Amino acid sequence: MLDDRADTHLLVAETAPEERLAALRDESVNVVVAGEKRVTLPAALDDLGAAGVGSLMVEGGGELIASLFAAELVDELTVFVGPTVIGGRDAPTLVDGEGFLDPEAFPRLALQSVDRLDGGVLLSWTVG
After folding, report:
1. From the centroid of its chain, how far is CA 67?
2. Where are the domains of the chain?
3. What whole-number distance in Å separates Cα of residue 69 and Cα of residue 74?
4. How far is Cα 89 from Cα 66, in angstroms, rounded to an integer?
5. Exposed/middle/buried for 60, CB within 10 Å: 0-12, 13-18, 19+?
6. Which pTM value belongs to this model?
7. Which of 1, 20, 79, 121 has the fewest CB atoms within 10 Å, i.e. the most exposed one?
8. Homologous superfamily (CATH) for 60-128
C-alpha cells in the first residue's frame, strides 16, 4: 500500500494514536481525521472528494460494509464466491453489525455481471 503507485489515504477517528499517525504521515499517507470515537463516513468521504478522490474501492469487514450501506454511500458491490466453504456460528458475514432487519431498509441491488474466476464466481451489482 505504501508504494508510489497510488496515493494512500487513511480514515481515522480522533482517538487514533498520534505516534502511529505521525509514522504514516512520514510515509506520505494522507491521514483524514473524521469523527470522535469512530470514523464518520459521510464526512470522511467528503474530505476524500475534496482531495480529488473520485472513486473508492473498500475492502472492509462486515461492520464497515454495513455502515457504508446504512449511510447510502455504496454505488457498486462486487463479491467473490470461491470454492472453499468458510463459516460457522461466529464467522463474519458480508454485512455485520446491526444489519438490515426491516425489508424497507434492505439495499436494492441490480445484477450487472457474473464472471468465472479462479474456480469461483465474481458477482457485480449496482445499488439503487
Report:
1. 9
2. 1-56, 60-128
3. 6
4. 19
5. exposed
6. 0.81
7. 1
8. Dihydrofolate Reductase, subunit A (3.40.430.10)
**Residue listed under C-alpha cell 468458510:** 86
Secondary structure of the chain in HEC code, one letter for each residue = CCCCCCCCEEEECCCCCHHHHHHHHHCCCEEEECCCCCCCHHHHHHHHHHCCCCCCCCCCCHHHHHHHHHCCCCCEEEEEECCCCCCCCCCCCCCCCCCCCCHHHCCCEEEEEEEEECCEEEEEEEEC
- CB–CB of 67/41 below 8 Å? yes
The C-alpha cell that represents 20 in the structure block: 502511529
CA distances from 29 to 2, 17, 19, 48, 51 (A): 8, 15, 14, 13, 13
**Cα 45 from Cα 99, distance rounded (Å):** 21
State how far the Cα of 112 lies from the Cα of 9, in Å rounded to an integer: 29
